[in-house]
Amino acid sequence: MGALIGGTGADIQLAVIIGCDTSNIGTHDAMRLTIRAAFACALLASCESSTDVVATDTFTATLNGASVKPTAVTTKGSGTLTITLRSDTSLLAYDFSCAGLSTPATGVQIHGPAADTAIADVLVDFAALPAGGQGTLQLGTSGSAKGTIDLHKQVKLGVTGDSLFILLHAGQLYVDVTSSGSSAGEIRGQIRKK
Questions:
Q1: Are strands 10-15 and 143-150 parallel, antiparallel or unpaired?
Q2: Is residue 32 located within the same domain as residue 65?
Q3: Same domain for 42 and 90?
Q4: Same domain for 77 and 138?
Q5: Can you tell me the distance from the alpha carbon of 178 to that of 175, in angstroms, rounded to the nearest whole number?
C-alpha cells in the first residue's frame, strides 16, 4: 500500500507495509523508507498550525429615546454600539457612536442584568474603564467611544469578566447615554447578538 504526496520539484512516496513479509527488504531500502516516512510526517505536522480557526461573536445595540426606561424620552438622539468577542483573546472590543442629543452627553454606560423593560446598575462606565481596559471617549451632543475591556479581570466590585460575558450572551445588558437634560438617560439600547 502506498500514497503519493506531491511537492514542488519533487515527489515523496510514502509506503506503509502492514502484515507483509519484510525479510526480503534490504537494510538500505528499509532506511530509505524510514527517512521518507519521517519526512512525510514532519511535512504534514508543519501544516497543522495553519488550520487554526478564530471564532468571532458580534453584538449590537441601537439606541433611541423610546427605549429609555422607566419613562421614554422624546429626542432626535440616536446611537449604535457594536461589541466584538474573538476566541483568540480575552478582550471585549467596543465601538460606540451617538448623534442628535438634545443636550450634551454626560456619560455612556453598560447596565445589567436587565431585560429591555427594566433598569439595572451600571456595570461598565466608558469614562472609567475597569483595570485592563483601554479606550477613548468623546462627549457632546454627538459622541463616540472605542476601546477594549479585559474579561479575565474584574469589571467592578462583585462582577467578574466572566459574569459580563454570560450576561452579554443572555441578552441581559443595555447601554444608555445620560445627558445634562436627561440624567436618567436620553437614549438607550438593548445589546443583542447579531
A1: unpaired
A2: no
A3: no
A4: yes
A5: 10
For residue 167, give the amino acid letter.
L
Q: Select from 60, 134, 65 the least CA-distant residue to 96.
A: 60
CATH number, domain of 186, equals 2.60.40
User: Based on the domain organization, do 83 and 179 belong to the same domain?
Assistant: yes
Is the confidence at residue 159, as pLDDT, over 50?
yes
Query: Which residues, listed in sequence order, are joined to residue 10 by a DSSP beta bridge?
Result: 7
Query: Which sign, positive or negative, has the C-alpha torsion 23, 28, 29, 33?
Result: positive
Distance of CA 20 to the CA centre of its chain: 53
The residues that bridge with 78 in the sheet, in sequence order, are 64, 99
What pLDDT does 52 receive? 80
Which of helix, strand or coil describes residue 41?
A: helix
CA distance 173 to 116: 8
Q: Whole domain around residue 95: which residue ranges?
A: 56-193
Q: Enter the pTM of the model.
A: 0.74
Q: Report the number of distinct structural domains present in the chain.
A: 2
Question: What is the H or E stretch that residue 15 is in?
Answer: strand 10-15
CA of residue 121 relative to chain centroid, distance: 24
